[in-house]
Amino acid sequence: MELTNKQITVIFKALCDENRVQIFRLLQNGEKCACKLLEAMQCTQPTLSHHMKILCDSGLVNGRKEGKWMYYSISAEGTEAAVNVLRELTKVSESGECCCT
Amino acid sequence: MELTNKQITVIFKALCDENRVQIFRLLQNGEKCACKLLEAMQCTQPTLSHHMKILCDSGLVNGRKEGKWMYYSISAEGTEAAVNVLRELTKVSESGECCCT
DNA sequence: CATACATATCGAAAATTGTCAATATGGTTT
DNA sequence: AAACCATATTGACAATTTTCGATATGTATG
Q: Exposed/middle/buried for B20, CB within 10 Å: 0-12, 13-18, 19+?
């Protein structure tokens, strides 16, 4: 599965914002509903909703709807995939000599 | 070594931009000087310089000056640290039950 | 030392992203 | 169905980021 550069940026955009990093911290001890996250965050409900969309799009977070509540949790598959992408992208395949003499 | 949320965002900002992802691809087969990177990229010299600064600040890339040339390479320590941060931040410490009944 | 070259910095414009108030949507309860 | 609640979406504005031309800095070379 080859990801485009664009797709890779989508993954790591999840971690480019302080608020979203904080959301990860909140999700570390298990699934939480949006209302609990909102309580803990210093932002409005629409802003939280926006961040959760970015997190879900990145694949690092899963969303699950139950009645009128929305539950979010860290995705094991997503995070493993992200680690692999990071590894792959920063792997040095010792070969090329460079450059300007 | 505890990183703040802000410091974490600095690391992953490196991978939030398509051009910078492309730069990682170029650095995968070893150290390259700025002029070679510039040849391969579709941007001007000041723009490349800006991206290289962000990459170096993230710790994922090392810069080395030699005469009037600047050589860049992927940092083994930096990338390992980034993987650890990603792992740590997305680790679920099974405990909390949630939430709204 | 004057010129040429590689890269960095500055300042401004364009593009993207984060934020919120207002409102819509979809589910639940009386 | 009407009122209510949780979350999503919209539209506008603020903040940040990307980009580039112009210029500065530092190094090598004639």
A: buried
Contact A100 B16 (CB under 8 A): no
Shortest distance, CA B7 to any CA of chain A (angstroms): 9
Angle between helices A76-89 and A5-13 (to 10 degrees): 130
CATH class of the domain whose range is A5-84: mainly alpha
| Averaged pLDDT of chain A | 94
- Domain coordinates of chain A in residue numbers? 5-84
* pLDDT one-digit tens code per residue, A5-36: 999 999 999 999 999 999 999 999 999 999 99
Asked if A38 reaches chain B (Cβ–Cβ under 8 Å), the answer is: no
Calculate how close chain A gets to B43, using CA atoms only, in Å.
Answer: 16
